[in-house]
Amino acid sequence: MKKKKLYTILSIAIVMLTIGCKKEDTPAPTTTTGTTVPLQTTVHTAIQLGGVNNFAVIAGSSVTNTGATEITGDLGLSPGTSVGGFPPGTLNGTLHINDAIANQAKLDLTTAYNDAAARVAGDMVTLSGNIGGLTLTPGLYKSTSSLSISSGDVTFDALGDPNAVFIIQIASTLTTTPGRKVILSGGAQASNIFWQVSSSASFGTTTVFKGTVIALESITFDTGATLQGRALARNGAVTMEGNTFILP
Question: What one-character DSSP code corresponds to residue 231?
Fold first, then answer.
């Protein structure tokens, strides 16, 4: 009986030792978010554009184009008077220069800009520098300086909700380098992405950009850059060079 009891104790010890060794040999699981920023729980409503809604491009001082730019949507200017480059540019919409529609759109643009700039949330995510390579999920993002998309593309993932809203507040400039892209996934819609730019925006050659860009100053598109969204410059000019604009 004593031997049998001893064998039993030894068998249990061997089993425990074996389990312990297996646990040591198995790597501990790692948790990583990769290039996806933290999820936010605050649900934001879209920025109301009012009379700006039908404009693909609107500027404050002037609109200048060279090359075969094609705009699908209205083109507006207020209070400036200089619109150049159409043709060779093509406008599949209505041109409004300092008329009642353009002037009202400009007032609504100011309201939309102020709304976007004033949004706050307890789970807001801070961005800085180059955001290329990041995946942004619905919510509010804030940069205290300039933002760029300069190495890798940026993805907006709506996580299956086509009504999900993304608001990006930028304290200075927004720039992209040639060939960079904004990618939509998970049902994300260009109409629900709002870039509030406290200075000017500039898009490099062949950039593929998405969302409504609301800039305090000017917006510049280099050759071949495309926009699914709106280019809205409150005070400055919009400059184009063989680009494509499509309302979302």
Answer: E
Alpha helices in the chain (DSSP H): 2-25, 100-118
Residue 58 within a domain: yes
Query: Does 177 reside within a domain?
Result: yes
Beta strands of 34-138 (E only): which ranges? 55-59, 62-66, 70-72, 74-77, 82-84, 90-92, 95-97, 125-130, 135-136
Tokens of 18: 């074996």
Residue 93 near residue 102 (C-beta atoms within 8 A): no
5 occurs within a structural domain = no
Q: Is residue 2 part of a domain?
A: no
pTM for this model (two decimals): 0.85
The domain tally of the chain equals: 1
Which is nearest to 46 in space by CA: 178, 189, 186?
Answer: 189
Strand order in the sheet with 135-136: 135-136, 154-157, 182-185
Reported as half-sphere exposure (CB side, CA atoms, 13 A), residue 125 has a value of 20
DSSP one-letter code for 191? G
* Residue 54 domain boundaries: 50-246
How far apart, in whole angstroms, are the C-alpha atoms of residue 186 and residue 216? Answer: 30
At position 177, the amino acid (one-letter code) is: T
- In tens, the pLDDT along 130-172 reads 999 999 999 999 999 999 999 999 999 999 999 999 999 999 9
